[in-house]
Structures are given as C-alpha cells and as structure tokens.
Amino acid sequence: MGNVFGQLFRITTWGESHGGSIGGVIDGCPPGLEISEEEIQVELDRRRPGQSKITTQRKESDTVTILSGVYQGKTLGTPIALSIPNKDARPSAYDTMRDTFRPSHADFTYQQKYGIRNPDGGGRSSARETAARVAAGAIAQKLLRTQGIEIRAYVEKVHTVSMPEMVDFPSRNLIDSTPVRCPDAKTAEAMIATIEAARKQGDSVGGIIRCRTQGLPTGLGSPVFDRLEADLAKAMLSLPATKGFEVGSGFAGTELFGSEHNDLFENRGGTIGTKTNRSGGVQGGISNGEELFFRTAFKPTATILQKQPTVTQSGEPTELQGKGRHDPCVLPRAVPIVESMTALVLIDHLMRHHAQCKTFNLLPTS
Length: 366
What we know:
Shape: globular
Order of helices and strands: EEEHEEEEHHEEHHEHEHEEEEEEEH
CATH superfamily: Chorismate synthase AroC
CATH class: Alpha Beta
Largest sheet: 5 strands, antiparallel
Radius of gyration: 21 Å
Strand content: 15-25%
Number of helices: 8
Strand order of the largest sheet: 1-2-3-7-4
C-alpha cells in the first residue's frame, strides 16, 4: 500500500536506499511508443548523485535496464519493468544510527507504524527511491511531447537567494547550464556560494522549485476530488523533503483584491485566453489551456554533519552526528524529479480525459 501512483497510467516503485537495486513497473502505457534505455538514462543522469561538489558524493551510475514491456524499441502496451542497481551502497555508514532516531527523519514514524525499519540510508523513505519515478517519468514525458506538451522545472530560490521573475519559457540547456539548475546565471552563482557555505559548516539549506508546462489542452482534471492541482499537490508532496505547494499566485494571491486577482478573458485571434494567468493554468480544477505553473518548497536536508540531541529507541537521551554522503541542498537533483512527477500526473489526466471527453489520438498513427 502507498507504493502505487496513478489511475490509467500507473506506476509501482520498489527498493531501498542500500538494497541490491531499485526500480518500478509501469502499467497502462500505450503500445507503439518508441523508447530506449538511452532516452530514459538522459533523465536519470540529471538526477543521479555525484554530479558536482554541491551534491552528495555517492557514486552511482543509475544505469537503467528495461526488463519487460518493450520489443524492438517500441512499447507493447504490457507492463514495463525498469531496474536500477545500487552499486555504491555503504550500509556500514549507518551503524551508529541503528538504535538511534535521526532528527527530522522518518526513523521514528516508520518504527512506530511498522515495528521495524531499515536504517541503512533511510531504507524505503530515502530519496533514492525517486530514481524509479524519474525513469517512469521519462516515458511519460515522451508521450506528452507527442501531444506538443513540454515541462520545465528549475530552482527559483535557495535559502534566502531568489532569482528574478522569468517571463520566457526556459530551455533545458539553459536550466542545466549551472550545477544548481537555476536559469539566471547571476543568481545561480549566489545560490552555489550559499550551498557551499552551508556544506563547509556541516549544515544544509532548502528552497523552492518552480515548474512550468506549456501546450496543455483545455479540460484536464476531474472535479471534485480529482482536480488537476489536487493531484499535482499530492505528487509533489509525496516527494521526500517537500513541505509546501502552491499553484498560480498561491499564497501571495491572498494579499490581492478580487478585482486584482481575477483572470480576465481576451480574444487572441480566434482563441480565448487570459491576460494575467494568476490561476496558474487551472480553474475549477480543470486546465484552461494557459501555461500551467506551480511552486514546491523543499526543506533543508535533514542529515547534517553537526551533533544534535536525540533519543534512542528505548527513549534514552543521546547525541547524534550525521555521517555518510548527503546533499547539502536537495534542489538541484530534485528538478528532474519534479518534472517527472508532473509528467506522470499529466499523462494520467490526459488519458482519463480521452476516456471521458473528446476523442484524440494519444500517439501519431503510422
């Protein structure tokens, strides 16, 4: 339970941080989509550890293997199984934590709920699990591109350093041009300096990722309980270290009057659009054809290399200092994860819309 996401395009992920491997199974992918391990690998390489000095130095190639569901480079319409080995697992780094709860981790809650837990890197609660989501998301993104839908996520804020508002839809190359994945070069330098300063102090920082999607048709989302933004919120808040989600104007919109906040319709040469898009591309839980955008807040990495007070499983007070290899800031590697989860939500809603409303081909006919 709790390991399956989606309705028509459904994924199940499996594996632990320091186990033999991690992976996922996709059920519901349409047949005939051309896909390869190399295409999936591109997305995994953006998420993998050891990319730069501001990320964890765990050395994992995250090499994906397609075990089923693809024949001669095309999807069969049957379950697609994906496997990613753990090559640089070091469970011994967590020996001192087997009987001690790490502050602000899932150690205590997992122990209380299940009566047993895997302390090696957090086991199932580790962000390592998200590699399987990215692998599945790579397939979802390719499906969306056949419909002219593009997703871009980027780091908008690290600690107190924020980038200026970006009007243009950024390219993937621009986002990936710096290790922090901020498309504004000057801000990126300041963000990197902030992360490095925290790392040298054995500390960590959090921040905000903005995600933008262009090319969405009108009509995605099923009120009342399957509103598009509600499923996006669930997807984002299912990610480790996330603590906040807002779509469109979000919390800042609470400071406006209705006359200021309302999106006014206009005729754009025969098509209807809005002037301001404070709704973030969603109205009444349904996409309105405008750019979809939202922001997700990530807390500072919980594992820090400083001594902190905590308790043992028996309730005895003690101190614990984090060990092992950890990101001083999770945001640079979280960018492809946010994109992948967005793609999984959107392809699922696109397929549900196809089943419920107007007919269109999900894949081009040959």
